[in-house]
Amino acid sequence: MRLAKVLALVVGLVLVAAAPQTEKKAAAKSDKERLLGSWKLVKCEAAGKLVEEEKLKDGVDFTKIRFDGDRMKNMLIKLDCQFELNINSQPKQITLTEKFQGPDRDLKYYGIYSLDGDELKLCLNEDCKSDKRPVDFPTKKGDPFIFSTYKRENK
C-alpha cells in the first residue's frame, strides 16, 4: 500500500514536470505550422528608416519567402536556409542557417519574430557575420538589423 502511494507520487511528479516541456514543444510546433507557406514583403526598415521598394532588390532580395518544413526559402534567388525557433524567449527568436559545402562556413542570421494571423514580423542581423541578435523590432541608426513585415500570400 505504501509502495503504491510512493509510486503514484513519483508518477504524478514526473507528469507535472513534463507538462511544461510538452506545452513548449506544442507551441513551437504550432508556430512552425503557422509559418508554413509563402509570404510577401510589405514593409522593410533598416537603421531606423523605411527602405524604398527599389532598394529592396539590391543584394539579397527577400521580397518573397517560403517556409516549408524546417526550411525557409527565398523564392526569387536560390537561398535555402534551415530555421530554428526559440519560443521560450521574449520576443520569440529565430535562427536561419545557410549551409555551404567546402571551406566556407555556414552563414547564420540571428533574429526575432512575431506571428499574428497572416502577418509575420522578422528582425534579423543583415550581414551574417555578427552573432548579435535584436532585442526589439524597431531598428536604430547603427544597428546591424533589418526589420521586415510580411503578409501571407493566398494559398
Task: Calculate Rg over CA atoms.
Answer: 20 Å
- In helices, the fraction of residues equals 10-25%
Cα shape = globular
The helix/strand series, from N terminus to C terminus, equals: HEEHEEEEEEE
Largest sheet: 8 strands, antiparallel, barrel
User: Mean pLDDT score, rounded?
Assistant: 79
Number of helices: 2
Q: Count the domains.
A: 1
What is the tally of beta strands?
Answer: 9
Pick out the low-confidence regions. Answer: 2-21
Distance between the termini: 59 Å
Structural class based on helices, strands and sheet pairing: alpha+beta
What topology, given as strand order, has the largest sheet? 1-3-4-5-6-7-8-9
Quickly describe the structure.
With 155 residues, the chain is of the alpha+beta class. The chain is 25% helix and 39% strand.
Description:
This protein is of the alpha+beta class. The protein has one domain. Helices cover 25% and strands 39% of the residues. It has two helices and nine strands; from the N terminus they run αββαβββββββ. Strands 1-3-4-5-6-7-8-9 form an eight-stranded antiparallel barrel. A hairpin with a 6-residue loop joins β5 and β6. It starts with a helix and ends with a strand. The N terminus is likely disordered.
